[in-house]
Amino acid sequence: MGENMIDIYIMGEHHRVPDSLTILQALEYAGYRLIRGVGCRGGFCGACATVYRIAGDYRLKFALACQTKVEPNMQLAMIPYFPAHQPRYRLSELKGTAQEVLNIYPEMLTCYGCNTCTKSCPQEIDVLGYVSAIIRGDIPLAADISFDCIMCGLCVSRCPAELVKHHAALLCRRIYGKFLAPRSEHLKQRIQEVKTGKFTAAIAELKNMPPEELKKVYANRDIEPEE
Ligand code: SF4
Ligand code: SF4
Ligand code: FES
To answer: pLDDT digits over 25-61, tens only?
Structure first.
């Protein structure tokens, strides 16, 4: 059975592509060689941020090109880089307070609360939720809500207040990791064991294992019970 071909428009140029392709695959099918705008191909790196409309619908939609299938009459453009303000700071010179986040990103206080950012996020993150947490000084909550952010910048591209909230949220996750997250005693002990060579022979054995055997060992590994 032949492939079902559909019309799409890439940066305004008409192409016919199979409807089974992702946007990323369709771009390559149409002859684009992506250097920027592609990374992991698995929905993790945020490099393939894409904006599109379907002809006849006034609304803009947002997607990761590697995770989204083409649709008939899709009009699309990639935004592989969005120039975002990035204040410089040294985590080692911070004390880990919520006020420091607002000192570094004071513009966060100018959020209009319009929620356009949340509607723009291809990860379906409650962006306004973490912006509000930053404003309230709740770093653990901001870190938690923004945990799946892939730094694509789409939420910034449409923000009427021009807030680089994904970078402010990254600072919250960094502060949480360095200053606020509970310390794991058994992790410290395990690192010490790694340093003193307790696992050197076992790691060498794993490295020499045929892939199929390695997969079995991985599938049968001990997993810590959830608390
Ligand atoms: S789009 Fe900008 S102004 Fe609107 S809620 Fe999000 S951060 Fe605030
Ligand atoms: S929060 Fe912003 S930068 Fe992060 S994934 Fe969503 S749209 Fe992209
Ligand atoms: S290429 Fe990495 S998220 Fe799409």
So the answer is: 999 999 999 888 889 999 999 899 999 999 999 999 9
On whether the CB atoms of residues 96 and 56 are closer than 8 A, the answer is no
Probe ligand 3: pick from 22, 40, 50, 68, max atoms within 8 Å of CB? 40
Hey, what are 205's tokens?
A: 């054995």
Give the pTM: 0.81
- As for ligand 2, residues whose beta carbon falls within 6 Å of it are 46, 120-121, 123, 125, 127, 149-155, 166
d(CA 172, CA 135): 12
Nearest Cα residue to atom 7 of ligand 1: 111
DSSP string, 130-194: HHHHHHHT-HHHHHHHTTT-----HHHHT-TT---HHHHHHHHHHHIIIIISPP-HHHHHHHHHH
Task: Say how many Å lie between the CA of residue 146 and the centre of ligand 2.
Answer: 8
Residue nearest to atom 5 of ligand 2 (CA): 149
Residue with tokens 């192409």: 15
**103 CA to centre of ligand 3 in angstroms:** 32
